[in-house]
Design brief:
Length: 297
C-alpha cells in the first residue's frame, strides 16, 4: 500500500540567541547549544530569559493549543460517529498532530461495509486501512466514520485483534468503556437513579473530577455532549450547585435533546446512553467512602 508516509523525524530548527547561543524546540522542551555547536544539558539563565526564548515558548503554546483542538475535533467525530470526507483526512494527514490522532483509528465506510485501522492516505485521496484479516486495503468510499465502540457488534474481536498486533491509539477508542442499554429499561422514565447519593466533602471535588475527565459543568450538572442519529444530545448528571467548599451529593442522570427537553429512556440512543453512564460512573467513583468511615467509627 503506497500511502503518504510521515516525514522522518527532523532535527531541531535552531534560532540565534544572545551571546552566540542558539535555541530550538525539541518536542515540548526548550534546548540550547553554544557558539561551538555543542548542545547543552541545561539552558543558561540569560538564554532562558531572552526574547528569543520567550518567542519559542509562545510557539510551543500555540502548538499545544492546536493539539487540543485536534483532539476535540476527532473526539467529536467519534462521539457522533460522524462521516468524515476522505479529502479532509488527506488534507490534514501531513500535520503530525492530526496524523498521530488518526493513525490506527478504527473506521468504517460511511455507506456501510468492512472497516479497518486507518493507516494512511494516497495521492489520490484514498483511505488505506489494515482490515481484520490483517490485509492492507483501500476503502472504496469517499467518507469514513470513526466508529464509536458501542456500535461495533464484534467489538471484542476487534479489541483482541488490535492487542495481537500491538496497536495503540492516541485517542482511546477501542479501550473506551462502553455501556449498552439494558432491554429491561423503563421506556417511559426520564432519569437513571443508580448513581444518586454519591457524597463529596466539597462540591469542588466533584466538579474537579468532572472537568478532569473532559466534561463541562453547567447549572449543577456535569454535561456530556454527543451526536445521535445526526442530532445533538446532552447527558446531564447532577453534582450540586452550592458553594464550592460545601458538601454535596450526586443526583439523577438524564438526557435532553437539542431543545433541552428531557428524553424518555426508551428514546436515548446507544452512544448517548453509553457516554452518559460512563460520565456518571467516572464521577461517582470519586465519592466519599461512607462504608469505610462507618467501619472506622
Amino acid at each position: 500500500m503506497a500511502t503518504t508516509s510521515p516525514p522522518p523525524a527532523a532535527e531541531p530548527v535552531w534560532t540565534d540567541g544572545p551571546d552566540g547561543y542558539a535555541l530550538a524546540l525539541d518536542g515540548a522542551s526548550l534546548v540550547c547549544r553554544n557558539a561551538r555547536g555543542r548542545r547543552l544539558k541545561t539552558v543558561p539563565k540569560k538564554v532562558r530569559e531572552s526574547a528569543e526564548a520567550e518567542h519559542l515558548r509562545g510557539v510551543l503554546l500555540r502548538l499545544e493549543l492546536h493539539e487540543r483542538e485536534c483532539v476535540e475535533r476527532v473526539e467529536s467525530w467519534l462521539l457522533g460517529s460522524l462521516p468524515v470526507p476522505a479529502s479532509v483526512i488527506a488534507r490534514v494527514w501531513a500535520d503530525p498532530a492530526w496524523r498521530e490522532l488518526l493513525t490506527d483509528l478504527f473506521v468504517v465506510p460511511a455507506g456501510g461495509g468492512e472497516g479497518g485501522f486507518l493507516r494512511g492516505v494516497d495521492d489520490r485521496g484514498r483511505i488505506g486501512v489494515l482490515d481484520l484479516d490483517a490485509e492492507s486495503v483501500w476503502l472504496d468510499a469517499d467518507r469514513v466514520v470513526p466508529a464509536h465502540p458501542v456500535l461495533l457488534e464484534d467489538l471484542e474481536d476487534v479489541r483482541e485483534f488490535a492487542l495481537e498486533l500491538g496497536i495503540t491509539q492516541r485517542l482511546p477508542q477501542l479501550t473506551r468503556a462502553i455501556h449498552r442499554k439494558p432491554d429491561a429499561v423503563e421506556a417511559g422514565a426520564t432519569a437513571v437513579e443508580d448513581y444518586s447519593g454519591g457524597e463529596f466533602d466539597q462540591l469542588r471535588h466533584a466538579t474537579g473530577r468532572a472537568q478532569r475527565y473532559g466534561f463541562t459543568v453547567r447549572g449543577g450538572y456535569a454535561v456530556c455532549r454527543v451526536t445521535e442519529r445526526g442530532r445533538p444530545v446532552q447527558a446531564r448528571y447532577w453534582i450540586g450547585s452550592d458553594a464550592p467548599d460545601y458538601e454535596t451529593a450526586t443526583g439523577r442522570l438524564l438526557w435532553v435533546d437539542d431543545a433541552e427537553r428531557p428524553l424518555r429512556l426508551g428514546d436515548v440512543g446507544p452512544i448517548a446512553w453509553s457516554e452518559g453512564i460512563r460520565m456518571a460512573e467516572l464521577i461517582h467513583a470519586g465519592r466519599r467512602n461512607t462504608e469505610e468511615e462507618t467501619t472506622q467509627s
